[in-house]
Amino acid sequence: MPNVTITVSDQLKIEMEKLPEVNWSEVCRNAINQYIQTRSSPVPQIQLMSEGIRPFTDHESGYPGLLVDLVIKNNMNFEIVVDRILYTVKFFDASNNQFGVGSDVDLWRRVVRPNSVAKMQLFMKIPRQKVESLKACFTKTFQCRIKCVVFANEFQFPYEQEIYNLKIPIDEWTAFVGNVESTNI
């Protein structure tokens, strides 16, 4: 079996010496093996959740849109770098009729630590004409779905997931539409 040399900090060496019964070669072998097995997956092992979606007007630009509170859970033992997220939003009325709202891309690079979560907000602009065409479609709280495609560095394929059961309260939607109609930007 070949030998591999690793370098550790002085402090880590002191901590290791406090545990003389541990076979550090075996610990390193297991860690390397687990890393290789996990890394050999062509798709990142992550999960997406949303803490909510709401109509929102960006006060700096005046653009109407949707603000999505998104959580990425990294289920792997090493950090990943999310390179970009493509997302598409659809609304569904009480009769389950589907209304395409739009698609956008988030290009912010984000590091998600091992076995942890990263929270972020995505803002998708909605053209005023689209808001106008959707305004009469909803008379009570309605459902929303977001399909996300997440690209992470060093993975062959992106991770895809659709997030269901998001609701937009009708009072928020009505206020949003009224705000869009009252501004001329």
Q: How does this model look, in words?
A:
The chain is of the alpha+beta class. It folds into two domains: 10-39, no CATH class; 46-182, Immunoglobulin-like (Sandwich). Helices cover 24% and strands 42% of the residues. It has four helices and eight strands. The protein has helices at 10-17, 24-39, 128-134, 170-182; strands at residues 46-57, 64-74, 80-92, 98-106, 110-112, 117-125, 142-152, 159-168. The strands form two sheets. Strands 3, 4, 5, 7 and 8 form a five-stranded antiparallel beta sheet that branches. Strands 1-2-6 form a three-stranded antiparallel beta sheet. The longest helix is centred in the N-terminal third of the chain and has 16 residues, at 24-39. The protein is elongated and about 70 Å long. The mean pLDDT is 91.
